[in-house]
Write a structure and sequence with these properties.
alpha/beta; globular; Dihydrodipicolinate Reductase, domain 2; Rossmann fold
Length: 377
């Protein structure tokens, strides 16, 4: 059996629960070794509730004022998982890297591009891996879809429509870190539109397009100036063979919100078919397919007729977070034992995707500050 990557977790945040469950799956090639929390009581409760009895005795708890420092410097661990508020990411990513640890950090990675560049430059310098926690990227369904849209059956990619919304309750709007300016000032733009943007980047990468400008078309801010509802556009360059032909400019339109019922839909429009996933961020249990649809008019244009194909991928029995942690473990181990060109290429690809997603999120925030002006990247 391959040696498991030993993971230490900074904080006992609720967002960490599903990732802790994923790390305890044998396929992840990871093992939870340590947890840091300022509160011993909170740490004990987290371990009791979310780590199996088989593994709980193996988990070292760091508590008190120096808990985070003690964990990142511990020789017990190989990597650090950081599910802290975004405003805390830079400090602890840098401390973990300087302590010789790999890092998986929740998204958004940070609140500005200068901090992002500082973290990733340091990772290259110390030869450690940073991965952002965009889990659906590692789902076999997403990988299959990316291959399909590059086929002749799908046609030219024209545009992507996406939304990711959740409905916060009174408790959410009073206390959740995602709407607090000193914790996550990017609000729903950083937390939710991140996924729509990443999906669009994956799609456009397949067909050789790059993002070039963004515009926020509507937005609502809370009293602290944090976005809680927003809609916008990301324009991509024309396909290389269509250079100068604006007809085939790629476009993402998206909506993200903390104020509407759960919806997580992406629609990728091609010149021959449209691909749709209605659970693209957090899949339904056992979900392993996407829909391909085309429509024609019949009977002197009086009716529309649908052609619908459900493409089943399979191999989706395991939750997508397990695939993410397996990728993380394998890449970290490969970095440690060799100068693998394959590993280096994958690291660069993932870093570039993270960079582009963060860049677009920051540009959209600039558009909000400038009342919806177009921002060129």
């Amino acid at each position: 059996m391959a040696m498991r990557l030993r993971i230490g977790i900074l904080g006992a945040a609720g967002i960490a629960r599903k990732n802790v469950a994923a790390m305890q799956n044998d396929y992840s090639l990871c093992q939870v070794i340590a947890l840091a929390s300022r509160s011993q009581e909170k740490a004990n409760r987290f371990v009791e509730q979310h780590i199996s009895t088989t593994n709980s005795e193996e988990v070292t708890i760091f508590s008190g004022e120096t808990a985070y420092e003690d964990l990142v410097s511990s020789p017990l661990i190989d990597a650090v998982y950081i599910p802290l508020p975004t405003s805390m990411h830079k400090e602890w990513v840098i401390k973990a890297l300087r302590s010789g640890k790999h890092v998986l950090v929740e998204k958004p990675v940070t609140t500005n591009m200068a901090d992002f560049n500082e973290m990733y430059n340091l990772a290259r310098e110390v030869q450690k891996y940073i991965l952002d926690g965009t889990m659906f990227v590692h789902n076999p369904r997403t990988i299959d879809l990316m291959n399909y849209i590059d086929s002749s059956a799908f046609g030219k990619v024209l545009r992507i429509n996406s939304e990711f919304t959740i409905q916060g309750d009174d408790e959410f709007f009073s206390n959740n870190v995602r709407i607090k300016k000193d914790c996550d000032p990017l609000g729903c733009v950083g937390d939710l539109s991140w996924y729509s943007i990443r999906m669009a980047l994956l799609v456009m990468k397949q067909v050789g397009r790059t993002a070039r400008k963004v515009k926020m078309t509507s937005f609502r801010l809370n009293d602290s100036g944090v976005p809680i509802d927003a809609a916008g556009m990301v324009h991509f360059s024309p396909m290389k063979e269509e250079e100068g032909n604006e007809e085939y400019d790629g476009l993402l339109t998206f909506h993200c919100s903390f104020m509407q019922p759960l919806s997580q839909r992406v629609e990728i429009c091609g010149s021959k078919q449209t691909a749709t996933i209605t659970d693209f961020v957090i899949p339904r249990k056992g979900s392993d397919s996407y829909e391909l649809r085309s429509q024609t008019l019949t009977d002197c244009d009086k009716f529309a007729e649908d052609s619908i194909q459900t493409k089943t991928v399979g191999n989706c029995e395991t939750v997508q977070e397990v695939y993410m942690w397996r990728h993380f473990s394998q890449t970290c181990r490969t970095m440690e034992i060799s100068e693998s060109t394959k590993a280096s290429s994958k690291i660069q690809e993932m870093a570039h995707m993270s960079y582009q997603t963060q860049l677009i999120v920051i540009a959209l925030m600039d558009s909000i500050r400038e009342e919806g002006r177009e921002i060129y990247l």
